[in-house]
Amino acid sequence: MPTIAEAGVPGYEANNWWGIVVPAGTPAAIIEGCNKELTVVLASAETKKRFESEGSEAAKMAPEEFADFITAETAKWAKVVKEAGIKAE
Fold it and tell me: For 4, what's the count of Cα atoms within 13 Å in the CB-facing half-sphere?
């Protein structure tokens, strides 16, 4: 079976991802504290084992990096929706 690129769609990329977000205006100290604790959880052997059992891996990002990632994902998929003429039903 050919890869998606071999089938004529070079540059194709689609990934599932999950993240934890907080309401706009949350104090930076709270965000940093949550990020610190989440980093500890993601580094634990139990969490790593669970992710691996599902064929996944955790991508640890600083809060600013995650915000940039969400912005980029939103722009990427908005373009797909627009170009494909996808409409909400």
Answer: 6
Tokens of 38: 């989440």
Overall average pLDDT of the 9-13 stretch: 82
Question: How far, in Å, are 20, 41, 74, 78, 86 from residue 89 at the CA level?
Answer: 28, 39, 20, 16, 9
For 41, the 3-state DSSP assignment is helix
- SS3 (DSSP) at 88: coil
- Would you state the pLDDT for residue 11? 81
| pTM score, whole prediction | 0.78
pLDDT at 42 over 90: yes
State mean pLDDT over 54-81: 94
Q: Alpha carbon of 76 to those of 14, 65, 71, 80: distances in Å?
A: 10, 16, 9, 7
Q: 28 — phi, psi (to 5°)? A: -55, -35
